[in-house]
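Batch 3, record 17
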Amino acid sequence: MAATTAGPSSGGARPAGHDTVRALLRTVDTKRRRRDRTMTVLMYVAFGVAVLPLVSLLWTVVSRGIGRFDVAFLTHSMRGVFGGMDAGGVYHAILGTVIVTLGAAIISVPIGVLAAIYLVEYGPGHRLARAVTFFVDVMTGIPSIVAGLFAYALFVLFFGPGVHFGLMGSVALSVLMVPVVVRSTEEMLKLVPNELREAAYALGVPKWLTIVKVVLRTAVAGITTGIMLAVSRVVGETAPLLLTVGVADSINGNPFEGRMMTLPVYVYRQFSSGLVPCNNPNVACIPTINYDRAWSAALTLILIVMLLNLVARLVSRIFAPKLRG
Amino acid sequence: MAQRIDVKDLNIYYGDFLAVEGVGMAIEPRTVTAFIGPSGCGKSTFLRTLNRMHEVIPGATVQGTVEMEGVDLYGADVDPVAVRRQIGMVFQRPNPFPTMSIAENVLAGVRLVNKKISKSDAQDLVERSLTGANLWNEVKDRLDKPGSGLSGGQQQRLCIARAIAVKPQVLLMDEPCSALDPISTLAIEDLISELKQDYTIVIVTHNMQQAARVSDRTAFFNIAGTGKPGKLIEIDETATMFSAPKEQATEDYISGRFG
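Prediction for the assembled complex:
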């Protein structure tokens, strides 16, 4: 050790003999090596622990849901289905989920993206921007049931108590979605290098066109991914939809009137119906039909979310800035 | 085509901080004017005030006048967007738009402002601008490939092509070669000598040999110390500046006896 501390002050002499250097190079730090091993093992274990529930969940849903998952299940509603009948499907719930979620996206994407543009491009230094950031943070923590209650209370003001229709669900979900969209879009806009904005300004491009055609265009892949993730996040919400959109057995494609079924609520309803008592041996009856439908609907929901993620990846691949020729 | 710029008593601020004080100079048409000086002396800041890019930074303001053809660029009736159309800029680091192809990058100044341009005019403009930037022969076979796939020097020439495609009167260059290798630097310097036939060029550089090689006139900026404002020490013919400067500070800086 003395050799290393001596350094250049030792009058230009070689700090250590050749043999010492060779010995130092061959030193094996067993302690560090052991620690490295331990940590590596620990990380693999942590990874396994994290992945195990996910794999188990997927396996459970697929194995239990695949039984009833067929074309008939996907194309029929629950209208006129009762008891242990070997019938009924999830079509009305898929339709409801798609409409309500699409509505939520239509409401929250413009609000979220525009708010993020304000925060990044116009806001810095303004008090309003700090207030918006604060409230967006607060909104991120709103429990979904509270969002549902809020939407319900809002619509009761205009339509009276006991009102239920699809748009209410969209509003409830957009309360949950807006902060997620704002946050992710904000991060993506911040990633756009300032040089590109300046390059556009220097060409005599007005600020708004710079934002639309350069900043948004450069960030569109990331923004789309963020929006898709926000959609996947709210598509499985149950509580606010139960409060606002309600429950239905028939197909309703009109988001402005009448209750609608949605997939998460469908799963909840089927599962809570429980076992069917099959007393009449002359009638075809499956005691576990409700559970089977619940699992198949859960599988449908997972597939929809996976599809959304796939679309997001595709979109981001298409729009991502190309670096190589 | 190229116009004279007159700067009078210009003070440049970042918020309350006076960054550059009392600059007055005339930038002659169809010449290359080089700004030299130590880091932080305000040459780039001053350059950015010439096309109102300075005010893009929040809190940045100026006092004084910058006149082109008798019009004060900071007058109440002058649109900064219009100023930047007349006075183009090339930055220190090449910054082609990553989402656009080479041809689209050249056309950016036209397309981004929603101006209609016919296909043949567009092709014409791309070829003319790229030829003007000495890049045409290198990229003519891959105009539809991404601009960010080019080498650093090619990207910088692409940025110059993009800047001259909007047909400005003046071209400002903020250390355009500092991120480039010597060969690319030479290509850009040759280009600058050609461009001054048509444009007024102002170039900021840390490389004094470069200033001596490419410029007709040189301005020396200096700063008294950290926190003090930068000042224009003197401006003169480049040959005079490098052989017999009037100020001692200029001579010290040029001969390397600085600090």
